[in-house]
Amino acid sequence: MYKLIVCDLDETLLDRDARISKQNEQAIKTFVAQGGHFVPNTGRSFLSIQDDLQQLGLLQQPGQYVISYNGGAIVENAGNQVLTTNPLDFATVKKIYDIARAEQVSGHIYTLENLYVWQPSVAERQYLDQRGVKYMPVPDDSLDFLRTQPLMKIILQDDDPARREALGQAIPKQVTTPLATTFSSGRYVEFNHVAADKGKATLQLAAKLGVKPDEIMALGDNSNDLAMITAAGLGVSVQNGTDVVKAAADYVTTADHAHSAVAEAIEKFALH
C-alpha cells in the first residue's frame, strides 16, 4: 500500500494551461482522505504553488508537505514551516551568473522566498505568468544583495537543447562546489547543491513520516525527476516524459499530463 506520493508539477500534474484537472484533483483528495500524504515535489518555490495547494485541500494543512527547489527545501504546509534546506554558496551562484551573462543566456536565481530573473524573453515571461510565478529583475550584476540570503538554486533558460546540454556539461567544471545538474520543462538547465535532489529529499521526508521506500510512489517527466522515480517503490513516468525517464520508470501512463495522467496512476495503484 502506498502511503506517500511525491509528484512533479509542470508537465506532470499540471496541464498545458498550468491547471490541475478535476480528475487529478479528485484522485489526490481521495488518496489523502484515506490517510495518504500527497507531496508536490517541484523545482519551483513552495510560495508559488499556494493556489495549487488550495485546490487540493492541502493549503496550511499540518502533516502535509511540499518539496521545493529540486529537493533544496522541505516545507510543512501548516505555516509554510521550512524544515530543511540544501543551499548553494554565494560564490558558486555568482560564478554561474557571470558565465551565463557572458554567454548572453537568461536565467533565474531562487532564494528561499524570492525569485530573481535576468533577461527573460517574452515567451519566458508568458510561461512564468501562466503559472502565477512572481519574480523580480536582478537589480545589480554584482549580486551583492544576495550575499546574506539562502540561495536555493540557479537555472539557465535557453530554447536550444544542444546549448542547454553544453552549459550543463561545462559549468560544473568551472566551479569548486559539487553540483547536481538537471534539465526541466524543455527549456531549463538547473544547478543545485549536490546534496539537493528530489530523491534524497523524498527519502528524508519519508523517514520523518515513518514511510518505507516501497510505500512511496513518485511521478515525473524530466531528468530532475529521475532521482525520485528511482528512489521510490513505484516510479511513474507520464506519457510525455523523456525517453530516459520512461526507461527508468516502473510504469508509464497511457495518458499525458494534459489528460490526467496523475489520476490514472493514483487510481490504478494507490486507492483502496
TrEMBL record:
Pfam families: Hydrolase_3. One of its GO terms (molecular function) is magnesium ion binding. SUPFAM superfamilies: HAD-like (SSF56784). The keyword Hydrolase applies. Transmembrane segments: none annotated. Keywords: Hydrolase. GO terms for cellular component: cytosol. NCBIfam families: Cof-subfamily (TIGR00099), HAD-SF-IIB (TIGR01484). This is HAD superfamily hydrolase.
